[in-house]
Amino acid sequence: MKFIHAGDIHLDSALSGLSAHEDAPVDLLRTATRRAFEALVERALAERVDFVALPGDLFDTGWRDYNTGLFFVRQAARLNQAGILVFLLRGNHDAEQDMTRNLTLPPNVRIFGTRRPETFEIAVDGQKVALHGQSFRTAATTDNLAAAYQPLPGCINIALLHTALAGGYAEHQPYAPCSLDELKNKGMDYWALGHVHEHAILSEAPWVAFSGNLQGRHIRERGPRGALLVTCEQGVIRPPERIFLDVVRWERALVDLAGAATRADAMNRTRAAFETIMAAAEGRRVACRVVLTGRTAAHGELFGQARALRADVVGQALTVGGDDLWIEKIGVATEPELDPAVIAGRADALADLQALLTKAATDADFHAALADDFRTLLTKMPADLFRQELLALDAVRAGDFAGLIASVAPSLVDRVAREG
Description:
Helix 2 (about 30-45) packs parallel to helix 3 (about 65-80), helix 6 (about 265-280) crosses helix 8 (about 305-320) and helix 10 packs antiparallel against helix 14. This protein has two domains: about 1-245, 4-Layer Sandwich (Purple Acid Phosphatase, chain A, domain 2); about 250-420, no CATH class. It has helices at about 25-30, 30-45, 65-80, 100, 180-185, 265-280, 300, 305-320, 340-345, 350-360, 365-380, 385, 390-400, 400-420, and strands at about 1-5, 50-55, 85-90, 110, 120-125, 125-135, 155-160, 190-195, 200-205, 205-210, 225-235, 235, 240-245, 250-255, 285-295, 325-335. It is of the alpha/beta class. Strands 1, 2, 3, 4, 11, 12 and 13 form a seven-stranded mixed beta sheet that branches. Strands 5-6-7-8-10-9 form a six-stranded mixed beta sheet. A three-stranded parallel beta sheet has the order 14-15-16. The chain is about 35% helix and about 25% strand.
């Protein structure tokens, strides 16, 4: 027996914030979840699996029209023609959607009910297989659904469950909470979990696994994404094989510039980081956030020059990956090479400047004067610049002048020191 476990597909998930990037591959990113699901279907057909298990959030919250559902119907029909079953459980994002209920699905699709755990029995080469699951009736389902799951004697028992477990994944809503020990002691052979977007094998006896989501949708969902290919031989489930099906991969390039003397040195290191990322992507498109770190003499050349810096970094990206490497954002987290403590011990104008800036960070009268100046500036700022996500601009909007001064001061001192 062979099946694919794939959770949290989020077909046609809305992507926000792309309009702020003129060079964003918007069409590619918006269709990425569909292309990844097509890759899943292709792999299922190639492997000749017996069924596909989808433990929740196949769809995202709300559809604009029926095209999302019809896309799924079309792909499920391809599996139907090959005799591959689909077991579908609804999670918090697609709980009892009206559009889903009104679609006529191919006969190979089995949907788990919402009132109590439901079991579907099938036979694969003479081996009885029981698939168990309960869909969410409402999005905010906080009951322990697993408590009522019961295995069937004489069967290979596979359970689908949409859950964050109990206290193990603080970044996820605590839906359908249960403990890992509870799942391990239920008598199931395999727990196909959904809801948590990171891949994890939590137990091997029995197998308890999150497949992770099929396609990363933003920078918080970095790295390889896909599903699990599960094989059962002579009644024994073998270690699941992770298969990568994402078509766009989100990555973060942390570029350490410690010891870099110039901006050119910084770009050379950035290019080397891109080469490593693209080699690991295996031909996929990559959306990358770049974060420059480290104490470097190049700090003053990087700070406060967002447009020029982006042009340099994008140039390196084009050199390495062409159109297959898109730079989502650039963060400068470097520090000046000059230590503030060393500067403070100097008896010169540079030490006086640092002391003046330190005092300015807590000077309420100075902050009030800045607020008046920036208020005038904001009214004259071009709309396209105003909409950009810039840390300094965000600080001005929030009236955080202490934070603004604290962030700018080291770079100003460093630039003055270098320009001597």
